[in-house]
Amino acid sequence: MKRIFCLLLALSSTAQANSNIIGPQLQVALETETECLAMNIYHEARSERTAGMWAVADVTMNRVKSIQFPNTVCEVVKQGPVYESWKTKRFPNLSDSERIYNPKRGQCQFSWYCDGNTDVPTEMDSWARSLSVARSVLMYDLGLGLTDGADHYHTSSIDPYWNDSMTHITTIGNHKFFKSNR
């Protein structure tokens, strides 16, 4: 237990030492697995205690491992229908890699990704904790299994229709965690 605590403390210190990543000119491109996981943790659980952040990370990783979802963290986080931007749609000769695609509002797996609001983190303490959790999960597999295989969650203040066909696993902080019955 002391080793895990020391490891988490070291990772937290590393995140704070890399203040250029979380400074006022923060730019997160969602291009690396760490950025994608940290952004998902931040937007889904920034007001939670650290356990809630770990739980969101675990669900994200459970989806990556599942055949029902995409195979990378970034693909899982960005999953949902898209439309092509008017900026590139008017040029028929552009290659697919040059085209700009945007998520359809309100239709993403994780609502923050397509809610139309800016995704730039503004709460630096929560962003640093999110980065630390993401790095720990991706580099050391820490926290995996916390939700016992859950692949969905929602805030405790709502009761969406889709959870009727799932098994409730646990409640951590302000979120209820579920496992698909497939």
Count every helix, treating DSSP H or I runs of 4 or more residues as helices: 6
**Share in helix:** 25-40%
User: How many angstroms separate the termini?
Assistant: 35 Å
**Structural class of the secondary structure composition?**
alpha+beta
List the helices and strands and how they pair.
Layout: H1 2-17, H2 33-45, H3 50-65, H4 73-77, E1 82-84, H5 86-89, E2 101-103, H6 124-140, E3 152-155, E4 166-172, E5 175-180
Helix pairs in contact: 1-6, 2-3, 2-6, 3-6
Task: Describe the fold and architecture.
The protein has 182 residues and is an alpha+beta fold. It has one domain (2-180): Cell wall hydrolase SleB, domain 1 (Arc Repressor Mutant, subunit A, Orthogonal Bundle). It is built from 6 helices and 5 strands. The chain has helices at residues 2-17, 33-45, 50-65, 73-77, 86-89, 124-140, and strands at residues 82-84, 101-103, 152-155, 166-172, 175-180. The strands form 2 sheets. The protein has a 3-stranded antiparallel β-sheet with strand order 3-5-4. Strands 1-2 form a two-stranded antiparallel sheet. The protein starts with a helix and ends with a strand. Mean pLDDT is 87; it is low at 1-25.
